[in-house]
What does this fold into?
Amino acid sequence: MASNEAYAKAKDWRRSHTSLTAQLWYMYENGICVDVLVRVKAIDGTEVVFKCHKLVLARLSENFLRLVKNTDDDGDVEIVTVNLSTNDPKIFSVILRYAYLDKLELKSMKQALDVHRFSCEYGTVQIFKECEDYISNNVNKHSVWDVLDYAPKQSMLMKWAKSTLGRETKQCLQSENFLNCSQSTLLTLVKMQQLNMPSELDLVLAVIKWTRRRNKDQDLTPQISQELLGPVLEQIRFLSLSAAEFSEHVAKSGLLNNSDCLAILVNMSAPGQMALSNHICKQMRPREKACTAKESSQKPTPTKKHEKEQQVVKVANKVVPPPKNAAASKQDEIMKKTDLLFKQLQQGISSMLNPVENTQDHVVVERVLDPVCPFLTQTMKAPCEINISFQLSRAATLKAVCIETQVTETNKKIYKEALHIMVREMGKTENIAYQTYHGDARYGPDEELQVNFTSKVKRMNSGVWYTMRILLRSAGQYKLHFRPNLVVLEELKVVFNKEESCARKPCPVTKLILEV
It folds into this structure.
């Protein structure tokens, strides 16, 4: 009898699994008391079924709580469906492992990006944060292209990936993964102003290599190149190359036709002497070279103990320049005055061309994509009307508003937008700002349209709620991203959507440009 009891105790799994997480994981692996079947569907139609516990799933997020609460509680095992935006339904096992063991085990960047997308869609905030930590710590010259293909335009992931790309441009372009990146990622690369590479030639050669890979390693023609590259071609600074570099590497590549090559070569020696096609970049200035983190980290920070010694060394090594004659001094003074006048002229021209750019008197309130759900969108069909309430922490004048543009499927890049914007103090009928816009706008989920208020605008007071009424008159479809209702800057705080209790709401307004 005693031996039977000892055998039963040894067989009891609770004795070998003492922690709560270990016991729950054992129950999951052995199907003990499971009360829900989760059917996970991938976008390619693949399905995998997992036997789980409602209680454990409900703790992941509010979305999962609603999912399991909708099942009938009659003692039978219920079935719920989870739809994924990836081709691998097995990533749900990573989610379940976190749900039971409170550990997120990511083995690759691709897996991390798939789990990150899942966390955005189902609102699992803690998994979202841990995924971002993993991605930010593992972005390198190979994985940066996967991150750029995946990340939304205004997300932190995009900023981290672009930072890596800016520091290690040459190494990233040498990666085999670069040749498999999407056209939109290639466009993000060529739009960057700061790249760490010797010259524009490195970028041009990489684009040619990418285009040939897309053309199945066949010879290129100008027509094929334009079809494959699209807007990428407009961002390549051919004019910053030397004539020898252009003739040797670009003219023979099949990237451009003969007339474009001739126009570029003429403009290299005599700018403006021959008209350039619309798809040719007019920028002659080379890109700025990004500063690498390694260069800055190699500079030691002097301690107080050695400050005096360093000062003595600096004084000892100081070279006293020879005295200048009167003519040279006068010439230097004239050059300084000329430089000052030139800078003032540049500032004047810039202020006329860009009346609402960041200055000391202007503040740009940017409503970035919500970090918890950057992929969530809400479809809206126009014509329609949108009302947005907002409140400022200090008095300011509204100078411009930026809104998302249409995503209607079409072969054209530009459409005719027609809209009216009215701003009023909440509860009143008098407009403090009014503007109409009838003109061109670019299609695309990451495009925006800036509407400047040209007529007289009244100043808005702090602590007062205002309503912005946007009338969209052009027929089409918009995909509005979710954006936080609170934007806090160093000198200003803006609260949106007084009537909403939620922390975020789909909204077309991406920026407010204010004069404070």
Notes: The first helix runs from residue 2 to 11.
